[in-house]
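Board notes (copied after class):
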Amino acid sequence: MSLLVFLLLGLHGYAQNRQAQTTITLDADNESVSSVLHRVQQQGYYRFVYNNGLLDDKRLISLHLKNGTLKQLMDVVLRDSELTFELKENGIVVLKPSAVSKTTNEGKRKISGLVRDSSGIPLPGVTVALKNKSGVGTTTDLNGGFFLELPATTEAVLVFTMMGFNTREITLTDQTSLNVRLSVAPRALGEAVVVAFGKQKKTDVVGSVTSIDPKDLKVPSSNLTTALAGRVAGLIAYQRSGEPGADNASFFIRGVTTFGYKRDPLILIDGVEVTTTDLANLRVDDIANFSILKDATATALYGARGANGVILIATKQGKEGRPEYFIRLENTMSSPTKNVELADPVTYMKLANEAVLTRDPLGRPLYSQEKIDSTGVSKNHYLYPATDWRKMLFKDHTMNQRADVNVSGGASVARYYVSGGFSQDNGVLNVPVVSNFNNNINLKTYSIRSNVDVNLTKTTLLITRLSGTFQDYNGPINGGAAVYNDVMHANPVLFPAYYEPDAAFAMTKHILFGNSPDGLVTNPYANMVRGYKDYNTSKINAQAEIRQQLDFITPGLSVNVMANTSRYAYYAISRAYKPFYYNISGYNRRTGEYILNEINPNDGTEYLDFPTNGGDRTVTTSVYFQAIMNYAKVFGRHGVSGSLVYQAQNAVSGDLSSLQASLPARNLGISGRGTYSYDQRYFAEINFGYNGSERFDKNHRFGFFPSAGIAWNVSNEDFWRKKLISTISNLKLRATYGLVGNDAIGDADTRYFYLSQVLMNDPSKAAQFGNIPGGIIRKNGISVQRYANPNIQWEVAYQTNLGLDMSLWNKMNVTMDFYKTYRSNILQERAYIPSTAGFASTPYANIGAATSKGIDGSIDYNQRLGKDWWIQGRANFTLAMSEYRKIEEPAYEDAPWLSKVGYSLSQRWGYIAERLFIDDKDVMNAPSQIAFGEYGAGDIKYRDMNGDGNITTLDRVPIGYPTDPEIVYGFGLSAGYRSFDISCFFQGAGNSSFILNSTTTAPFADNNALLKAYADDHWSEDNRNIYALWPRLSPDVSQNNAQPSTWWIRNGKFLRLKQLEIGYSLPKTTLSRLKLKSFRIYANGSNLFSLTTFKLWDIEMAGNGLGYPVQRVINMGLQANF
């Protein structure tokens, strides 16, 4: 028989003798028995436990007690019934049949008890079941209590299960009551949700907040941002590059909601604002909580900084106990997910000749047949070069290493958490041994962290946090992406990478790089090895926090004061020589000897130069202060809490190149939050932020950003708990609305829009004042670079959110949110003011507006299958659509389709490409495209949208999906059998498009390489395919074919196996012998394969396909805890 538990939150309990002395005061008129018991329980001293159906809830009673006893109450409640009561430990009152009715329950044994977590908090909704006996079980009430009747068997084992906690089995002997503690399972650590300036229980959260289990962020990468894609509902993320040190993912909370300067979210670690790079360098093993704040109620306390959403991270703190050590070691092999395939040298030359002749039949071929034939068979790569630049400059893979160690422990007075980490990420550049320095990418990252908690008094806690991240980088002078780009824009047959010295240059110390005597062009090899760049970064953060309880003033009052200072330093130096270039001026076919000609004898150098300015240097110092007063109190069924926050920040950058950038950036504000709950069923929350920024005029420097939210926990209603609680154990509905700001409307050089920007010494405004002997008198003039606008303010986001939280069968959690945002005051340049207005420069104003709307949701599933098996599943989905509402643009009266209003913020405009022209007749009968230059058969034919007979800019329309994906999703599955575990995670994106850059990928133009895909599928006289991948070839960029059009649009949707992991953990018996707490070895991989229709390069790189490729990583690791 199922158990119905009727109670609400009370105190944790007193000893039984204290309960016997407690008095009860209550007035009730014609109330049901359950209602009376409910009201008594709200007084905080008793919990009533009874079997479902035991009470006649239709019977109404009246009573008037003043300082009455429990027996006096129960005499009235149980009058005319065959029930009695028994007072157990901790104030549990068990209702049971009296001795008269015991004959109906012969052969039964009764057990009652409490279930708490490891910290002593009662756990409602825990499933209590008799092992190997279906149909016998119950769930704990809101205070963790349960009562169960069991068959009178000689042996009984109770199984306690709840999502987020480890399952526990207890073998019963002669007990009649139990006190059970459940430990938190690893995936349940996020149940304590980090919110703005504090923490809340997940059940009390009104706003839209998503928490991530830090374990899910442990991917084989040194860059934390690469783990975010597809992991979090409401987060749009993608990675465009795999270059170490430049591989940060781009991410936006609920998509891009502004076309202003700052689009990415506010990121805070331990309450302090940090950069995306700081997040990228954070060690996953240091993270305790990771939360994403998505709506106004969640972010309003950040006022003018929270409009783009907030990422909150709390690092680990120490805990009482003996020192506990943790070590993680990893070694990875990294290689490109996909290399761009290039045509072979012979095909390159044949099609280069075709490109000339197809445009001009009388033109001169670029390569003779003799050169083509000889290149195909010759082994003399100096005379007939055939350079595979990619193979020469890049390795197939590289090896990387990571190590993390931490220790935590302490006693009741002080606790500590100390960690250190190291990672080394190498590039795939194939540096030759002839260089006297190694300029392959090598990025070393060192991190340290020390968090210490000290109880100064019983009510005073001091927390100190010290962290540092240090990076040392060595790499090619222009970066790895530039080397890749050079390869894609290099002719494979024009010259070799370098020559071995002939007799005339036998004593030369420098490398004899190849090049063209007709004008220097790109030599990727020379560009790669000619120099190197070193940079060092240091980020040190020191924080002190005091938490003081003020219960002596009034219970529930506390204050929290925190001060933080951080310093970031960057120093970079580049050293390079100027290459000497050569070509063959003579060749003896009989002897094989060649004569070299020095192309630039006066321009090269044999030494590494040193920058006269000493390199790039930047130092930024930030000071942040925060004070919070908190209050929380429960009055019977009513719970109230409030927070008042004061915050001030000052950041100074030592940028010597810019006056504005060197000026302090300051923020000041007061924020507040108030919450109210009734009976753990109804919740309300109001928030506000009143913030000021130095970016605005004194009359608009401060702004007020309020929000409000309500929630209804339906599953705590009586009607729900009686019938549906076993199926839907939790159901909460949420609704919020509010305003949030964004003060980042310009970069450090252009932030003071309320001031005019005047150039006092402008040579373009110089005037001549006559002649003097030996020269002309000229004085530079004054010009206005930007007009002041004192009315400029921050962007304001009006956000609405409707949410649902649901738990099914204590195994599955479902969260769903529907949202809409209206963003106003987006800063824009007034670009379309008539020139007759007489402005020397165009002013700026808050005139833009945009909307965004969408859905995000997640599902988590957790199930143990018998003793040895367990399974976990998770999935999330995000739909984020944006739209221009107001924008500075022409009227477009004759071509309204050119207006951006109503379209996505990342929508592209271009021409509709119908097909390729069939022949000259087709060209003659089509609308004129002469505005784009020469065109003919095999070139792209565009649609005349306005029907005027000419293809012009008025024929451009929205093409493809937005460039930022509107749909992002992820799903994964984890399973385990005894000591083995396996997990996989898939990431996907949809509703996005990107455009192939037909200029940068155009073969032969500026000696560009030829993509194999273009060689295999292009229009020609022999292949008059009007839907070929590449149009008619050309030795130069064809302006007709280079127009942005649907011809070059590619669908950006994909599904990727983001991560696969297999692990083995030593069993407990072995751990005990080795004196270890845990030991696990594992192998995992990331970016293993993708399902997509796009084949040229990794689709996640989108239009950046000629840059440093995204990496596939295979990793081996071990972790130990002792």
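Comment from the instructor: The domain at 3-184 is CATH 2.60.40.1120 (Immunoglobulin-like). The CA atoms of residues 455 and 702 lie 38 Å apart.
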